[in-house]
Amino acid sequence: MSNSIYWMITIIDRNQSRKFVSFYKNYGISVLFSALGHGTAASDVLNYFGLEATQKEVLLAAVTDSVWSNVKKGLQSIMQIDIPGTGIAFVVPMSSVGGMRQLQFLTGGQEFKKGEESVLKDTKHELVVVIANPGYTEQIMDAARRGNAGGGTVLHAKGTGMEGAEKFLGVSLAEEKELILIVVKQEDKNAVMQSIMTDTGLEHKARSIVFSLPVTSTAGLRFAELKNTDED
Q1: Does one domain contain both 75 and 124?
Q2: pTM of model > 0.85
Q3: Which residues contact 122 (CB under 8 A, 6 or more apart)?
Q4: CA 39, CA 58: separation in Å to the nearest integer?
Q5: Is 131 in the same domain as 75?
Q6: By CB atoms within 10 Å of each CB, which of 11, 13, 43, 59 scores lowest?
Q7: 206 and 124 belong to one structural domain
Q8: By residue range, what is the domain housing residue 14?
Q9: Inside any domain, residue 110
Q10: What SS3 class is residue 74?
């Protein structure tokens, strides 16, 4: 049974979205979030990789290590993702998830045995990811700041596999979602996550689901840290 969990990110042309969503469901990945984007690389780089500056779709999902191992093989053999211009998929290890029911929902029934919380060596920051119903960003950020967080970035996304939400969470979730990304110091992560879960968790209309990802390197955070130090 798997005891590691990852946040899988897939970037593809928007017209390939349904094809990839159907592919992932064949591997038991029923809970997916999609956000819209577009390519920004210079034309010579795009030409080198066989890409065009087309509209992109970003698919986000939680996967166990065993599921990712099988999915990766399928992406290469079935979806032929290694062919230039098809897309890219990668995983980032999750370090913690705010609650067992939230974990069960995110993994969509994938076999998983929760182990010790993982922290990468020399990790000084964590990316706290909040998946919530739209319209509650301010309440969520107010709660995060009480845990010593700074600012956040909001992405608008659409969820699939929401029919399983009631099974794991006991609540109905809207398909439209907001993904809020907050970079925090590693020592502040637990306080930030706890504050968000307490103020805007499953008992709140926001229905926030919270997890964190390790950040191995950062740029642009030094000023914020010095400012917080001066205020202490």
Answers
A1: no
A2: no
A3: 216
A4: 11
A5: no
A6: 43
A7: yes
A8: 5-93
A9: no
A10: helix
